[in-house]
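Retro notes
What went well: the complex prediction finally ran end to end.
Inputs used:
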Amino acid sequence: DADVTQTPRNRITKTGKRIMLECSQTKGHDRMYWYRQDPGLGLQLIYYSFDVKDINKGEISDGYSVSRQAQAKFSLSLESAIPNQTALYFCATSEAGDYNEQFFGPGTRLTVL
Amino acid sequence: AQSVAQPEDQVNVAEGNPLTVKCTYSVSGNPYLFWYVQYPNRGLQFLLKYITGDNLVKGSYGFEAEFNKSQTSFHLKKPSALVSDSALYFCAVRDTSGAGSYQLTFGKGTKLSVIP
């Protein structure tokens, strides 16, 4: 969805480096999410935010942190990257309400050597 | 805990034939069910959802899905497959009872290949 953008689209880094992945949205949604996708495992939720002051851990938050700088911006950080964090990372947004669908960004392919 | 299963890693179908991608779920209360599609090098795109009401849900690109509460299934269907339907399909569930997570749980995905 072009209304949800992620930077960078690809990143190669080394073990121990700090990495930040950024997500911006123009949909005006309150809710934002970070997922990682590994082949054969589907999507796993890392963190989610229902508004600027409400940030929650997902099922695999260890080794990750997030910052919700504004309604439109939600960043994911890997404080000290490790090889098993090599994955495809997606940001998503949705309107408030558990019945609403999510809109996904194009993804960031991260490789940790 | 909520969970979703997609029993087939891959489905192959000839162009023009009907297609079915299977999904079963487990929740404590009533489910919200979603289907998403992922094309190569793209993010997930929403196809359709079941919230309540009519068990047959129609969505984008001619896809539909049938909610079956007794079989806890939400299979994705299309009457006539196109080569352009070849992609990775994800089923997702959210439990509305409060006993499970308020977040979406995704299946592992089913790769659909439509053969010309």
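What we learned: Chain A touches chain B through 23 residues (CB under 8 Å).
What to try next: split runs per interface for comparison.
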